[in-house]
Write a structure and sequence with these properties.
The protein is α/β, with parallel strands linked by helices. It has one domain: TIM Barrel, CATH 3.20.20. 39% of the residues lie in helices and 16% in strands. The chain has helices spanning 33-36, 49-54, 72-85, 97-100, 110-125, 141-145, 153-169, 182-191, 202-226, 248-263, 266-269, 276-281, 293-297, 338-351, 378-396, 439-450; strands spanning 18-20, 26-30, 90-94, 129-135, 175-180, 231-238, 241-243, 303-308, 312-314, 356-360, 370-371, 374-375, 401-407, 426-429, 434-437, 452-454. Strands 2-3-4-5-6-8-10-13 form an eight-stranded parallel β-barrel, surrounded by six helices. Strand 14 and strand 15 form a beta hairpin. The chain is globular. It starts with 17 loop residues before the first strand and ends with a strand. The structure holds 5-hydroxymethyl-3,4-dihydroxypiperidine.
């Protein structure tokens, strides 16, 4: 389907003002392996915790899994061609650990590496910057059988796997991201059980959180040693919490939530250690932290990747979640762009990292309006535009933002929600695997080409 149509902003409520971004600012999209690749049992891929989790009735809302997903494993060439046609500068994807080290013996599977090598070559050939993430939640099942991220040894296995990837891809990749959203890995995977491996223990959550960060530190060391000219990043999700009222109880709970969700990973990376008051509140005794760990974890990163979707409003008794008339996406998350602007300013004031990149931002919307075949998603367009405007404002105030990646390139497998929520700027017909850019993709394409947006 043609991608060179006019993608006016009008239906999304525009003022006509143009915001131009600094030269070198880049635009692109993000995905992850289990959510789009499919090909779950080919070329030697071993099972991951998500294969196991999806097989348990009740874990995934629509009973689906990532066996086929967007079949990107077989369609990566045409997918890259589509990104190129849309004028995108960068593509963030993740590498499936169970393709690279499929079995407990640790042997590296060349065919797994071949796939990502070909993907990187295809991207470079199209002038698109490859931005791989080494861990976006698909832990090999054999490691979960050995106690997953609760086991310190998993961090060392992660570093070995990272080194195998970097040996093959080398400095063709300018930035390697170690982990995606360690908070979600530890919290949803080990505390609430909403995600694989589906465990429900606060103590295991704390152990997992530390071993994830240790894995980051160990992998960062190997990346630097193996591809010295590549940069190292970590991607953290931030959901800024605000108190529902000014009461002491609400403010205390809000602080705890900000510590657990927003500072638990960024503080140690920046050398500030774990948030002590909150660790004490939950009676975490730091027993997993060995001598030297915090120094490894806080070795300077080159870039902080920021995933932002929404804010949260917190009350001590959990009675208040946001004004009832607030705009929300189809997963119920409040839409509140100013929170991104304040987050960016606060992060830079607190941490002073070298550079920042929006590694995910986007929303699932009803997608129920069409013009011919094309989804007219003015609501998604407005969400993306209004958040990008916040990035622009932060740059004006001195925050070194280097780019913006929309989540997601495609509609895809949204974890425990299955295929219900549609985050894509490109629709995927799962029967035919046809890709149809939504109106928001055409608008985003204009933004990428002109390095500017009309608000
Ligand atoms: O789909 C996820 C992604 O895998 C990680 N960040 C949030 C997205 C939307 O929930």
């Amino acid at each position: 389907m043609a991608v060179n149509e006019n993608a006016s902003n009008e239906g999304a409520g525009s003022t006509g003002q143009i915001l131009t971004f600094p030269e070198g600012f880049y635009w692109g999209s993000a995905t992850s392996s289990y959510q789009i690749e499919g090909a779950h049992d080919v070329d030697g891929r071993g099972p991951s915790i998500w294969d196991t989790f999806c097989a348990v009735p009740g874990n995934i809302k629509d009973g689906s899994n990532g066996d086929v997903a967007c079949d990107h494993y077989n369609r990566y060439r045409s997918d890259v061609a589509l990104m190129s046609e849309l004028g995108f500068d960068a593509y963030r994807f993740s590498i499936a650990w169970p393709r690279i080290v499929p079995e407990a013996d640790g042997a590296v599977n060349t065919k797994g590496l071949d796939f990502y090598d070909k993907l990187v070559e295809e991207l470079l050939g199209a002038g698109i910057r490859p931005l791989p993430t080494l861990y976006h939640w698909d832990l090999p099942q054999y490691l979960e059988d050995a106690n997953g991220w609760v086991n310190r040894d998993t961090a060392y296995r992660f570093a070995d796997y990272a080194e195998a990837v970097v040996r093959r891809l080398g400095d063709r990749v300018d930035t390697y991201t170690t982990l995606n959203e360690p908070f979600v890995s530890a919290n949803h995977g080990y505390v609430t059980g909403e995600h694989a491996p589906g465990r429900t223990s606060m103590a295991e959550g704390f152990a997992a959180s530390h071993h994830l960060l240790l894995g980051h530190g160990l992998a960062a060391e190997r990346i630097r040693a193996t591809a010295p000219s590549s940069r190292v990043a970590i991607v953290i999700n931030f959901t800024p919490a605000e108190p529902a009222t000014d009461s002491e109880a609400d403010r205390a709970e809000t602080e705890r939530q900000n510590d657990l969700e927003n500072r638990w990973y960024a503080d140690p990376i920046a050398g500030l250690g774990y948030p002590a008051k909150t660790a004490e509140h939950y009676e975490w005794d730091y027993s997993e932290v060995h001598d030297g760990d915090m120094a490894l974890i806080s070795a300077p990163i080159d870039l902080l990747g920021i995933n932002f979707y929404t804010r949260s409003i917190v009350s001590a008794d959990n009675s208040y979640v946001a004004p009832p008339d607030t705009p929300r996406n189809t997963m119920g998350w409040e839409i509140h762009p100013p929170s991104l602007g304040s987050l960016l300013r606060e992060l830079h004031a607190r941490y002073k990292f070298r550079s920042y990149l929006i590694t995910e931002n986007g929303c699932p919307m009803p997608d129920d309006k069409r013009d011919g075949e094309r989804i007219i998603d003015d609501d998604r367009l407005a969400y993306v535009r209004d958040h990008i405007a916040q990035v622009h404002a932060a740059i004006q105030e001195g925050v070194p933002m280097e780019g913006y990646l929309v989540w997601s390139l495609f509609d895809n497998f949204e974890w425990a929600w299955g295929y219900g929520p549609t985050f894509g700027i490109i629709e995927v017909d799962y029967q035919t695997q046809e890709r149809i850019p939504k109106k928001s993709a055409l608008w985003f394409s204009d933004a990428a080409r002109t390095n500017s947006i009309e608000i």
